[in-house]
Design goal:
Layout (H helix, E strand, L loop, with lengths): L2 H25 L4 H24 L3 H25 L2 E2 H11 L8 E4 L3 E3 L1 H20 L9 E9 L8 E9 L12 H14 L2 E7 L2 E9 L5 E3 L13
Parallel strand pairs: 2-4
Antiparallel strand pairs: 1-3, 3-8, 4-5, 5-7, 6-7
Helix pairs in contact: 1-2, 2-3, 3-5, 4-5, 5-6
């Protein structure tokens, strides 16, 4: 069987599983909030499945990268189901740790306490996953001297009724960094999915010592909020 046909068979099987799950939820009379959240997750999973297939070079590459992408979405979904929101700092730190990139060693994180709503958190987690994977496979985090600084800030004077959250990923320690030769899944996430779902503006700069990615999007109530430092739960709501 050709590799493209094998990928298509896997997609059909996964779509069938998703359909059965939706039917079971309907039959069980699951609460509207749960069904709505799962519908959002299912829609994102379908998009990830399709885009992963379209951008994969081989079946092995498709399977390997797909597993990591689905895991990133699932981890955030579990946290969101437990707390209702997701701590941005924890989201980024956990995703880096999955790639064995430890805060205080190869990574530095800084920014105000922000809680993201489930859908936005899943998208951001997917973006961080792609940036981390790319930095290990092709960028500076595969090098002993490679580091990444992830910082975020919120501009409360954005002029459209909500502050803008600006998230910056900056790699250092590389040499001779150049743009990729092909437009892969990671680029689709950064340039298209974030823009469509969050209204994000994403700028990529392939600087001599590493990639700089800046993502800016409105922090509306459906996306997330800034919370007070004191009394803020690690993953959920502030007190």
């Amino acid at each position: 069987m050709a590799e493209s046909q094998e990928i298509e068979v896997r997609l059909v099987q996964l779509e069938a599983d998703n359909t059965r799950l939706r039917r079971l939820l309907d039959e069980a009379g699951a609460p509207d909030g749960l069904r709505h959240g799962l519908r959002d997750t299912m829609a994102m999973l379908r998009a990830v499945l399709r885009l992963s297939a379209e951008t994969a070079d081989t079946v092995d590459s498709y399977a390997t990268h797909l597993e990591g992408r689905l895991d990133a979405i699932t981890r955030v979904r579990v946290t969101a189901d437990t707390f209702g929101e997701v701590n941005l700092h924890t989201l980024i730190s956990d995703e880096l740790m999955i790639h064995l990139i430890r805060e205080g060693e190869q990574a530095e994180l800084s920014g105000p306490p922000v809680r993201l709503r489930p859908k936005a958190a899943q998208l951001v987690a997917l973006a961080i996953h792609e940036l981390s994977s790319n930095a290990i496979e092709h960028g500076v985090l595969g090098l002993a001297a490679g580091d990444v600084a992830v910082g975020w800030s919120v501009d409360t004077d954005a002029g459209h009724g909500a502050g803008d959250l600006t998230l910056t990923w900056k790699e250092t320690g590389g040499a001779g960094v150049v743009p990729p030769a092909r437009h892969g899944f990671g680029m689709q996430v950064l340039k298209e999915m974030l823009s469509y779902e969050l209204g994000a503006r994403v700028a990529l700069a392939f600087e001599p010592d590493g990639l700089r990615c800046t993502c800016r999007f409105p922090l509306t109530p459906r996306v997330g909020r800034v919370v007070e430092e004191s009394g803020a739960d690690e993953n959920g709501d502030g007190a």
